[in-house]
Amino acid sequence: MNKTLTDLKVGESATIRGLQSGDCQNALLALGFLQGKSVEVTLRAPFRGPMAVRIGQTLISLRLEEALQVLIDIPSRK
Amino acid sequence: MKKIALFGNPNTGKSSLFNLLTGLNQKVGNFSGVTVEVKTGEIKGAKHKLLAYDFPGTYSVFPRSSEEKIVFDVLSNPDNEAFPDVFVVVVDASNLERNLLLFDQLYVMNLPTVLVLNMSDVSARAGLTTDVEKLRLHYPNAKIIESNARVGLGKDRLIQAVDSIVDSNLEFNYQFPYGQANFSENEDTLKRRTKIQALVGEVQTKNIDSKQNYFLDKWLAHPIFGYFFFVLSLFVIFQTIFNLASYPMDWIEIGISSLSSWFDANLPAGIATDLLVEGIIPGIGGVLVFIPQIALLFFFLGILEETGYFARVIFLMDRLMRPLGLNGRSVVPLISSLACAIPGIMAARTISNWKERLITIFVSPLMSCSARIPVYTILIALVIPDTKLLGFISVQGLVLLGLYLLGLFSALIVAFVMSRLINSNEKSFLMLELPPYRGPRWMNVVTMMWEKTRRFVFDAGKIIVALSILLWFAASYGPKGHVSKLAAADFGLTESTSNNELGAIRLENSFIGIMGQKIEPVIRPLGYDWKVGIALITSFAAREVFVGTLATIYSVNDAEENEVKLLDRMRAQTFSDGTPVFTLASGLSLMVFYVYALQCMATVAVVKRETGSWKWPILQLVVMGAIAYLGAFIVFNLFA
ipTM of this model? Predict the structure, then answer.
């Protein structure tokens, strides 16, 4: 199953598996969305608005269609 | 003069460092054909003459917005007038891994480069130690220094480093690998990213595990309370601005009018004195009087930006703005336009998508700016009864609020219509860093306030003053020559005609009076006579000129001192059939006209510059004019 950042709820974390090719691939790379990095969703705006994710020290807000390009592995829950 | 370019990611303190290096002695650089803000300023305290350029914050050399494109354009062309002699790359030492990408990309261009590890305090608090010596081994050709621009540390070290580079006078072998055919941006970025990841692991160690705190965001960016806080903060800011600004505005008005009277009394009578007293000084006064409101608004906006709150507003508003063809980033230009559309339109530069930026520019002048307030105030006082609803809600206040809301909702509707009409395949991005909340750096707040206010004074100011002089000419001269030289007898009147009446008759026979009479058939359906027509024409200098023009037409010597007198004169105005000119219907019709009409030549000029063609400002002038005319016509007929 190809999970993306948009599948996470506020407070949940995951590991980046890679980026799907698309318009903002290079920008996402520049912002530090790299394979193996862990991300945590900290905010979601209402009405399917943007989400904010923490990656390393930085909080970055992405629209859902931008977040869809980020593939993730969700650690199995205990 | 050597050119020193500052590059860096957003939120690295790059602009703080620039402000520290140059002080308030900054200019906005002019690049031919580019509407991007690059500030320049001479570096103080350096051995050589050094001119610093503050380039827009960018995460990589590959551009996403027109703002970021300037970096690519300058770097790819060594013949560019702004091509730097020395690169200074400012990085946030607490976020080295992300920040080093841009530096790594610039480093291989093989030009003299200084790497500034900024925000050493934040980095230390995050428990990070950076081994600068090890970092130097990886980038042997760069000078690496540490700084903390927030508290003013590192400035001297940077100046020293740059001076010594200039001293050494080495030859460099410029390379620019990024623009070539079959160059893959993604491959290159990924390669650098992997390298940097390993490098940072080697030079930086983390001693303590810092846990970030999102308490403030839980409330300020909350799905419900977030919007509440936003509206509340705007309310508080505008209340404060209107209350505080009224004092200096009064002083400026009194000062200008006493200056005018002093010159009038002490200079020899003549055309030059008239030009000074009736054209130039009131024109300058008309510019100065808005400075308090505009400066205060940008002071508060500067604080909101500095604390990191604006990024949250963009985050919250993005979803609401998008169906209207706008972007979360459109919020800042729209709010700025509540003071003056000119800095507002320029703030739209941060919007990367052309269509969204264009729509933002197009609708910004519909937001009620400060220049409309005097017009609204006098018209409301004239036709709206000073009564209270339910004993405490002022009807006059409600009408004023209604005019603001009318402007706001019209802006949103026009934006929606435009978004349907303009086709564009360009992708729209948000991708925005939400910086940590922190106290404002006052130096930056003051610099921003200074910069935006100065821009209003010069961009709008010169047009307002020029048009004031032109209007003075049109009001002083007529086909028969200088109208004030004409005596009562020239108009077939007796000598007993009072000076005030004579003044009004002279105006009637001036160029502008004739123009007013010519357009009367056009504006008669809106409920106006030719005298109001004159005021509509003069308003193109700036909307508030409406009030001063009416005072001249109705022969009230000083509009500010004699508002009551002006109101009385306006009430007494009648058409030739004896019906009053200013009724509820014509008053409301005028208010609606001023909500919509683009009566501001300075805005037209700025829109032309920002969009790069006459097409958009002319379309804007026509569309807003048509809405104004139709709206005023409907309102007049509804209430007549």
Answer: 0.94
